[in-house]
Amino acid sequence: MATAPHKQSLRKKLYTIIFEAETPAGKWFDVVLLILILSSVIVVTLESVVELRREYLQLFLTLEWVFTIIFTVEYFLRIYSSPKPLNYIFSFFGIVDLLSIIPTYLSLFVLGTQYFLVIRVLRLLRIARIFKLTRFINEGEVLSKALRASMAKIMVFLGVVLMIVLIVGSLMYVIEGAQSGFTSIPKSIYWAIVTLTTVGYGDIAPSTTLGQILASFIMIMGYGIIAVPTGIVSVELAKSEKEALASTKVCPNCHEEGHQSGAHYCFNCGYHFKSFR
Amino acid sequence: MATAPHKQSLRKKLYTIIFEAETPAGKWFDVVLLILILSSVIVVTLESVVELRREYLQLFLTLEWVFTIIFTVEYFLRIYSSPKPLNYIFSFFGIVDLLSIIPTYLSLFVLGTQYFLVIRVLRLLRIARIFKLTRFINEGEVLSKALRASMAKIMVFLGVVLMIVLIVGSLMYVIEGAQSGFTSIPKSIYWAIVTLTTVGYGDIAPSTTLGQILASFIMIMGYGIIAVPTGIVSVELAKSEKEALASTKVCPNCHEEGHQSGAHYCFNCGYHFKSFR
Amino acid sequence: MATAPHKQSLRKKLYTIIFEAETPAGKWFDVVLLILILSSVIVVTLESVVELRREYLQLFLTLEWVFTIIFTVEYFLRIYSSPKPLNYIFSFFGIVDLLSIIPTYLSLFVLGTQYFLVIRVLRLLRIARIFKLTRFINEGEVLSKALRASMAKIMVFLGVVLMIVLIVGSLMYVIEGAQSGFTSIPKSIYWAIVTLTTVGYGDIAPSTTLGQILASFIMIMGYGIIAVPTGIVSVELAKSEKEALASTKVCPNCHEEGHQSGAHYCFNCGYHFKSFR
Amino acid sequence: MATAPHKQSLRKKLYTIIFEAETPAGKWFDVVLLILILSSVIVVTLESVVELRREYLQLFLTLEWVFTIIFTVEYFLRIYSSPKPLNYIFSFFGIVDLLSIIPTYLSLFVLGTQYFLVIRVLRLLRIARIFKLTRFINEGEVLSKALRASMAKIMVFLGVVLMIVLIVGSLMYVIEGAQSGFTSIPKSIYWAIVTLTTVGYGDIAPSTTLGQILASFIMIMGYGIIAVPTGIVSVELAKSEKEALASTKVCPNCHEEGHQSGAHYCFNCGYHFKSFR
Fold first, then answer.
1. Which residues form the Ion transport domain (chains A, B, C, D) (predicted)?
2. Chains in touch with A (≥3 Cβ pairs < 8 A)
3. Among A11, A88, B102, D262, which one has the highest count of C-beta atoms within 10 angstroms of its own C-beta?
4. What residues 30-49 of chain C have any CB closer than 8 A to a CB of chain B?
5. Which SS3 state, helix, strand or coil, does residue D156 take?
6. Of A200, A202, A230, which has the smallest distance from its Cβ to D230's Cβ?
7. Is D38 left (phi over 0), alpha (psi -120 to 50) or beta?
8. In the 3-class helix/strand/coil scheme, how is chain B assigned residue by residue?
9. Rounded to whole angstroms, how far apart are CA atoms A80 and A274?
10. CATH 1.10.287.70 fits B140-239, yes or no
11. How many CB atoms lie within 10 A of CB B239?
């Protein structure tokens, strides 16, 4: 077939525009997509305000359909241009792309569309893809590396927090009772979380002396133990930054990276740095 | 007696299953126990919800007895299989194990069982034992070592916090008086803790101008001094991590410490580690 | 012209007094200006209290005009004394200086002067100039350098926070509905921000079980992820401090960097710094 | 005079007991004093509870006089035993000691004794002296050194916070107006402090859309900028700890302290460490 090479190049061109961001066209595409996604989420958000919905319902519906049709075209172009369409369709972003257009079509047949609101808001996740292509990727990687490295410590910390919250919640249920709003252990645990995290709504608050003493303890504890995750993340961030820095020094003999600042010999092959510098 | 060696091996086998987690059977035992403990705590929690108790009281009672009987069997197996039963019985976990089954039996004879709720929730502490056997132990140890090392500093910090809270509480009692809810010094101290820790329920809040100025000061102070425990724990964590990394390796030639994990040569004198180990 | 050199020297003298702070007269000028700015802002602030305005309106108006006339004289002296008047007029501080006198003159012709209040409060920004001339500049520079260096990471962090807040807000709108105060998605997002940042007003609070479970998750998340910006800023501050200390000195013999302030000999090769400087 | 040497030795003995803590008697004295101070503060605190005062007024009065007489005796013993009595009387702790006994005597002649409550609570400050003599002094010194070192940076930070709070407060006053509780700029500033520090009482909360958007900004800002003081203190603590560590290495030639870990030569006199170790 004569059109094959042309088609091939069209698909490649589309792929460069849609999936990459190096070319001017690719950057333009990303900017326009970013604006469309944000606008469509803002429309969903405003649609939920009763006063606005009453007045501008027709406008909202029209806009919603415009966005959906554009996103649908984009979805099929993505399938068309990707070298392995099935890989794309079942990838995380492929599913998010599908979920961001389906609710509008379903709303034609199904009632109770308010539950689709949340799905439509998930369009926001599509922004993550755009950022993937920009300079933020490095920063995000350092952050997420530090978070992954401190995951085990943070799990231990969260486990201890949950234990404190459960035990203090049960104690408060027994001490305060239903008059102060501590009507059940789950509700007391909810109060303990509200207090330990220093949110403090005030919808439930202890009224007995013993309850207020216990509440004081959990408050001061919550105020203090926030230091633990902060310390963990600080240390991990410092480490992962240091590693990123250390890699700038490379042994001229064996090309090993990650030397300590101040090292006189390569830790891998024993080469004497001084003789080189 | 001929059965002695057989019995001995049964007890040893039970010990490996119940107290350790290296064998497949031991891991299975831990997973089942974890599920049972969590389920039993969830049942206790839900039992406290009035609407649920009214409807499912019979189910809750049955489940509670099922859990108690299983835990009782487990308790006696632990006593039977441990080499020094008395050591186990009077150990921390031995007492927690006993406390987690006694309330149900006592509820047959004693009224006012709601006070047993908290004791039953203490079953949660049994989970700590299971985690002791897993990979979280290292992370927990680094954390608790850092916390123990910073204990003295944190005590000084807490002492200063308590002094601030007491003095500000007394001042607010005199400034605001009973109309704003500051009915006594203990209540004012409770308010000062709620404010300094940035919980801020809002059940008591200053209404006079002078009171609001003082409240502003304590808020900004509380917002600022949270930096102190955070800084303490960060520094201690960084130290204890560094020690864990560094103390494991010393150069046998120049006795330099602080080598990177994975180093083949001393960074100070160029000695080849491999030739030594 | 005979007066030119005299004028020139007067302008130069005024410039030294008004724009600099090295001379005693310059320091005096700064202190007086600082007091005037603070007094004028306090007067604006107190003027907004209904009880005080009713009683002392005449005093407030007189003071406002006194301050305005002084600031006007200062403004024209600044224009007169600066070597390039246009540069000053269109600089950031030139505009702030103009904005701090215009509202009072406009209030003669225009009604609805309460909107000028905010502009008058902007006088506060003029204080920033005074601090620019003092020893705080170094500290401020280290801080702002660290903040600028961590900007990209903090943007990623804020992006993730906004995504969480939008998705959780939409979920809560569907779960809780209008009875609990979650009347629209924007309002639910506002609640999510109030909760995630651990402010917790309590004007809107979840009342259903599912809503309280989701709220617990977002609270613990907010309690934990505050560790991320803290860690970022800590690491950047440590780096920028280290650089400020280290970059000032390089050994002229072995070109080793990172010498302690006050070192007389290179810690690496033993070279005597004094003999070089 | 024959009694002079005896008196001298009695005064010295008393001085060792009262002002120092090395001898067993000195330690005993400190423990008893600590208990007396805490008890007297607890009595003052409980006296302010209306229900308790009504019932136990006589007991409270008696205890107060007992404490006052003991503290009076202690005060005069301190004056008697100190080598330079006037130095003691006009020292910080001398004045605190006097203030902790005077209110009770004054209450015989003056009405409105509730204002003396706060002065009596200041007795707490006397505890600081006892801690001065214990092992907490080192920890406290590291902490206070780090805080003093970061003072300038924290002042810059607080200045920026106050500027934000003033400008946002004025904006909210204009946006929200008196209906939402923002009745004056000082009140709006109070709200801005409550919000920025994440306390969030909820007694005043924005109700307009624009106000809630501005509130969201200040909340996220407050959530983020808490990272700044935390980072500052972390870095300073790490530095002051490092210095405390570094000082353990002393140059055997010039006895200079504070060498970097890994230094081969004394930074002060150029002595080669290796030749010594």
1. 27-243
2. B, C, D
3. A88
4. none
5. helix
6. A230
7. alpha
8. CCCHHHHHHHHHHHHHHHHCCCCHHHHHHHHHHHHHHHHHHHHHHHHCCHHHHHHHHHHHHHHHHHHHHHHHHHHHHHHHHCCCHHHHHCCHHHHHHHHCCHHHHHCCCCCCHHHHHHHHHHHHHHHHHHHHCCCHHHHHHHHHHHHHHCHHHHHHHHHHHHHHHHHHHHHHHHHHCHHHCCCCHHHHHHHHHHHHCCCCCCCCCCCCHHHHHHHHHHHHHHHHHCHHHHHHHHHHHHHHHHHHHHCCCECCCCCCECCCCCCCECCCCCCEHHHCC
9. 57
10. yes
11. 19
Which run of H or of E encompasses C104?
Answer: helix C102-106
Give the residue with greater pLDDT, C111 vs D148. D148
The per-residue pLDDT for A221 is 86
Question: Which region holds residue C202: left if phi is over 0, alpha if psi is between -120 and 50, else beta?
Answer: left
What string of DSSP letters covers chain A? Answer: --HHHHHHHHHHHHHHHHH--SSHHHHHHHHHHHHHHHHHHHHHHHHTSHHHHHHHHHHHHHHHHHHHHHHHHHHHHHHHHSSSHHHHHTSHHHHHHHHTTHHHHHTTT-S-GGGHHHHHHGGGHHHHHHHHTSTHHHHHHHHHHHHHHTHHHHHHHHHHHHHHHHHHHHHHHHHH-GGGT--SHHHHHHHHHHHHTT----SS---SHHHHHHHHHHHHHHHHHTHHHHHHHHHHHHHHHHHHHHTTS--TTT----PPTT-SB-TTT--BGGGT-
Q: Compute and round to an integer the Cα radius of gyration of chain D.
A: 28
Distance from CA of D248 to the nearest CA of A (A): 21
Rounded distance between C-alpha atoms, residue C76 and residue C98, angstroms: 10
- CATH match of D3-132 with 1.10.10: no
- The beta-carbon neighbor of A202 closest among D198, D202, D234 is D202
By mean pLDDT, which of A222-226, B170-174, C273-277, D12-16 is the weakest? C273-277
**pLDDT tens column, D147-159:** 787 777 788 788 8
Spell out the domain ranges in chain B: 3-132, 140-239
Cβ separation C264–D270 shorter than 8 A: yes
Q: Measured between CA atoms, how close is B200 to chain C, in angstroms? A: 8
Nearest CA in chain A to D264: A262
Query: What backbone torsions phi and psi does residue D272 show, to the nearest 5 degrees?
Result: -85, 110
Q: DSSP state, D261?
A: T
Q: Give pLDDT, residue B133.
A: 52
Nearest-CA distance B159 → chain A (Å): 12
Chain A CB within 8 Å of residue B54 CB: no
Contact assignment for B198 to C198 by CB distance below 8 Å: yes
Q: Is pLDDT above 90 for C142?
A: no
Chains in touch with C (3+ beta-carbon pairs under 8 Å) read A, B, D
Q: Is the pLDDT of residue B150 over 90?
A: no
Over residues D56-72, the mean pLDDT reads 92
Which residue matches tokens 């079942």? A90
Q: Which amino acid is at A102?
A: I
Alpha-carbon gap, residue B41 to D22, rounded angstroms: 52
Please state the pTM of the whole predicted model.
0.81
What Rg do the C-alpha atoms of chain A give, in angstroms? 28
Coil, strand or helix at C198: coil
ipTM of the complex: 0.79
For the residues of D70-93, what is the DSSP string, one character each? HHHHHHHHHHHHSSSHHHHHTSHH
C-beta atoms of B143 and A156 within 8 A: yes
